[in-house]
């Protein structure tokens, strides 16, 4: 048997360090067993999936050195490797389950589903809905079908009390209550498969032997195991890795830690160091050394050395490790070349110079005027914002609203960023100049800089959003209570 592993990210946002973490362990496991590593793009969410996000995933994983044997960009024997290009496959498998009485067509409306869940919650039961909860009388099904009402296909799951035993490579046997498992949607009303159906079908057809994924998927394992049984297929070996955690032990999130790979690239971290650090997340070399290369990790990899305790993603620890790589593994000539490639390459200079040339009188003006574009976290003070004349509460509101709007922005072109902030300012009945004033400081650390919209375009979404979050923290942050109030106001505009 040839070992085959995969990573299957969704192209719906910035490439996440969690994706790289899972990719790294899948790659190392495959290489340790002389196997193959597959990259598959799970883009069934057509409203949020974008080509630019997919490209960012490919670029960032390659930057880290995490190459793949098969994928959407290089092809392979089991392609295509985008789910959107495999759509004709899934409907047939869903219909097969319906024909065999293992799934059913469900015409329930959203409001009915809400009522059913509320009723179960009020009775002190799990909100997982079963076939008996969802089934409609035959004549009502015919009426809704004749009216052309939308429907989904759901899988039938056990209704009786009991447990599903799932085998895990690291955790042994895991028992999960069937009472907590709902009649999962397999095919949505628009004909798109859900992750659960597409994941199982694709893993089988691509002959994936080991599914190494985050522990957040443990609760979905009974559904997947049941689907394998329904289809009569051998199930891959499951292995659920511990989730990356913030220093406070909460799940790694962008609100407490930068999570985009592109952010760390823009900050000037070395790919070798970031890959090394991700390798240390819950795993250790046999000799326990902290600094090791990707090839060294592959040569020594044993998945049984994974610790199930939640690994802490500590940026300060990453900085320390990155410093070791800079000092110990780069000659001065190599460091100079890295600096040129990172900040002073021809493409970067070509983008920056049009904005600075009109402001320069001497060549020495370039460094101070461009410093914020090649800096990481800026040194800010509350006084810089109070000098604008607005109350701190109002400034926090402006920054928080801008952050939410920019977090939802998928197109990061200069015009798109401008339209986003201008539309928001107009909705709040605030002059654009006043709305942008605190953003100027958050993004550039100064009130006198190139256009803040141009600056955000040059910095990119990851660094821009991180700097706005840093500005909010500098002003004392937004409490949970205030965040709820602001979110209501934001939704209203």
From TrEMBL:
<feature type="domain" description="Aminoacyl-tRNA synthetase class I anticodon-binding">
    <location>
        <begin position="334"/>
        <end position="472"/>
    </location>
</feature>
<dbReference type="InterPro" id="IPR008925">
    <property type="entry name" value="aa_tRNA-synth_I_cd-bd_sf"/>
</dbReference>
<keyword id="KW-0963">Cytoplasm</keyword>
<feature type="short sequence motif" description="'HIGH' region">
    <location>
        <begin position="9"/>
        <end position="19"/>
    </location>
</feature>
<dbReference type="InterPro" id="IPR020058">
    <property type="entry name" value="Glu/Gln-tRNA-synth_Ib_cat-dom"/>
</dbReference>
<dbReference type="GO" id="GO:0004818">
    <property type="term" value="F:glutamate-tRNA ligase activity"/>
</dbReference>
<dbReference type="InterPro" id="IPR020751">
    <property type="entry name" value="aa-tRNA-synth_I_codon-bd_sub2"/>
</dbReference>
<comment type="subunit">
    <text>Monomer.</text>
</comment>
<feature type="binding site">
    <location>
        <position position="254"/>
    </location>
    <ligand>
        <name>ATP</name>
    </ligand>
</feature>
<dbReference type="InterPro" id="IPR014729">
    <property type="entry name" value="Rossmann-like_a/b/a_fold"/>
</dbReference>
<dbReference type="InterPro" id="IPR000924">
    <property type="entry name" value="Glu/Gln-tRNA-synth"/>
</dbReference>
<keyword id="KW-0030">Aminoacyl-tRNA synthetase</keyword>
<keyword id="KW-0648">Protein biosynthesis</keyword>
<dbReference type="InterPro" id="IPR004527">
    <property type="entry name" value="Glu-tRNA-ligase_bac/mito"/>
</dbReference>
<feature type="domain" description="Glutamyl/glutaminyl-tRNA synthetase class Ib catalytic">
    <location>
        <begin position="3"/>
        <end position="320"/>
    </location>
</feature>
<keyword id="KW-0067">ATP-binding</keyword>
<keyword id="KW-0547">Nucleotide-binding</keyword>
<dbReference type="Pfam" id="PF19269">
    <property type="entry name" value="Anticodon_2"/>
</dbReference>
<feature type="short sequence motif" description="'KMSKS' region">
    <location>
        <begin position="251"/>
        <end position="255"/>
    </location>
</feature>
<dbReference type="InterPro" id="IPR049940">
    <property type="entry name" value="GluQ/Sye"/>
</dbReference>
<dbReference type="InterPro" id="IPR033910">
    <property type="entry name" value="GluRS_core"/>
</dbReference>
<dbReference type="InterPro" id="IPR001412">
    <property type="entry name" value="aa-tRNA-synth_I_CS"/>
</dbReference>
<keyword id="KW-0436">Ligase</keyword>
<dbReference type="Pfam" id="PF00749">
    <property type="entry name" value="tRNA-synt_1c"/>
</dbReference>
<comment type="similarity">
    <text>Belongs to the class-I aminoacyl-tRNA synthetase family. Glutamate--tRNA ligase type 1 subfamily.</text>
</comment>
<dbReference type="InterPro" id="IPR045462">
    <property type="entry name" value="aa-tRNA-synth_I_cd-bd"/>
</dbReference>
<protein>
    <recommendedName>
        <fullName>Glutamate--tRNA ligase</fullName>
        <ecNumber>6.1.1.17</ecNumber>
    </recommendedName>
</protein>
<comment type="function">
    <text>Catalyzes the attachment of glutamate to tRNA(Glu) in a two-step reaction: glutamate is first activated by ATP to form Glu-AMP and then transferred to the acceptor end of tRNA(Glu).</text>
</comment>
